[in-house]
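User: Sequence recovery, please. Input:
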């Protein structure tokens, strides 16, 4: 008989049978002391806590506790049922083996924004997730106004495949859906770069100038063609700026006073700054307008075009290199280098075709109320009119935003 080639110490030990477990699920009205009472009742049994999950919805609590089963699990059952009665709660006890089922590979965060969020939309999104073979492990509401935002932890599907599937359904249901791979990197995106016209601010600065120069119709046509990708941006900008020749420089000051930020813009910037993010603006617009906005908001980096001015009037030319579609991507890379942030930890937000390269370069590209060509190419699209809704894509809840605002008000007072 041949000898055993492996020493006994190197053999694979026989597999031990899975440890018996108990899953305790409590449901009922929430109030202070419930969780403490449950765990106090378990403390005398010499068992281990393997998993805990608790959810409260409109005052109703669901608490699930997975523990190792004691030898006398009938006595534990009796104790737990007594505690549940005392708490006026229901409890279900399931006997099993081993820890929870291993989590499926391919984990994603799916954020759904609705204004309003309707049941049929949630049903449709959940159905498409199931169609990919994925499972929804947890659902949490992260905002209730000005939009309703929920976040789903999903396992069992490739994030890229899931993003494509849900993008189609989101368009049909008129909701916004973002799919991001799970992991710490989601909270680690430390540089956010925004387009300015029709993103950070409402409207297009060049059209506001064109109205004063009497050439609004022609400038609007060229702007539309450029933003939809039908006309090269640099050529479009040269043609539009040429139409402004002879306009008094005072028009720039007038336009600055008329500018209105997009709803939620101040909240977005204020919250990001408190969290330690760095922020950049990259614009196909003009430094004479963008830089004062950046100074007011405390923006870290700015890149924009400069209108040439001679003797107090616009010459109809741009002074220096044009910030076009490649130029925006170049600016994002430069901002990231100066901020010492890898590109994978950047977020870019824009609405026009000249933003496409920038959105592609960033770790997360967000199309904000964007043209169709941009929505189709971006990682995710936001169609609600509130810029601070982008915070939810970063996993920041409305409650966290409001708590930070309240804390700042206390400091200021």
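Assistant: Recovered sequence (413 residues):
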């Amino acid at each position: 008989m041949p000898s055993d080639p492996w020493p006994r110490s190197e053999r694979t030990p026989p597999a031990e049978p899975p440890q018996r477990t108990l899953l305790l699920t409590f449901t009922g009205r929430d109030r202070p002391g419930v969780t403490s009472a449950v765990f106090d009742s378990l403390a005398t049994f010499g068992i281990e806590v393997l998993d805990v999950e608790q959810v409260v919805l409109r005052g109703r609590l669901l608490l699930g506790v997975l523990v190792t089963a004691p030898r006398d699990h009938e006595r534990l059952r009796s104790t737990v049922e007594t505690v549940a009665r005392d708490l006026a709660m229901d409890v279900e006890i399931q006997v099993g083996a081993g820890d929870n089922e291993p989590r499926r590979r391919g984990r994603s965060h799916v954020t759904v924004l609705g204004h309003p969020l309707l049941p049929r939309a949630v049903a449709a999104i959940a159905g498409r997730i199931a169609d990919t073979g994925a499972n929804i492990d947890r659902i949490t509401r992260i905002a209730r106004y000005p939009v309703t935002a929920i976040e789903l932890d999903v396992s069992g599907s490739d994030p890229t495949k899931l993003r494509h599937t849900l993008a189609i359904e989101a368009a049909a249901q008129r909701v916004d859906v973002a799919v991001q791979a799970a992991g710490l990197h989601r909270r680690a995106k430390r540089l956010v770069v925004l387009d300015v016209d029709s993103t950070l601010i409402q409207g297009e600065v060049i059209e506001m100038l064109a109205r004063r120069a009497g050439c609004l119709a022609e400038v609007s046509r060229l702007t539309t063609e450029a933003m939809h990708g039908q006309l090269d941006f640099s050529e479009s900008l040269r043609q539009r700026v040429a139409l402004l020749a002879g306009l008094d420089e005072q028009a720039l000051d007038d336009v600055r006073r008329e500018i209105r930020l997009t709803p939620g813009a101040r909240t977005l910037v204020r919250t990001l700054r408190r969290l330690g993010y760095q922020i950049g603006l990259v614009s196909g617009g003009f430094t004479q307008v963008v830089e004062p906005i950046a100074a007011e908001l405390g923006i870290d980096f700015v890149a924009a075009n400069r209108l040439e001015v001679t003797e107090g009037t616009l010459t109809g030319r741009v002074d220096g290199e044009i910030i076009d579609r490649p130029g925006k991507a170049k600016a994002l890379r430069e901002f990231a280098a100066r901020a010492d942030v890898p590109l994978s930890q950047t977020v870019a937000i824009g609405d026009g075709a000249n933003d496409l390269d920038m959105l592609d370069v960033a770790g997360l590209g967000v199309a904000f109320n964007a043209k169709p060509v941009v929505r189709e190419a971006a990682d995710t699209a936001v169609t609600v009119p509130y810029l601070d809704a982008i915070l939810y894509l970063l996993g920041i809840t409305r409650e966290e935003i409001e708590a930070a605002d309240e804390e700042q008000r206390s400091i200021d007072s």
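Residues 1-12 have pLDDT under 50 and may be disordered.
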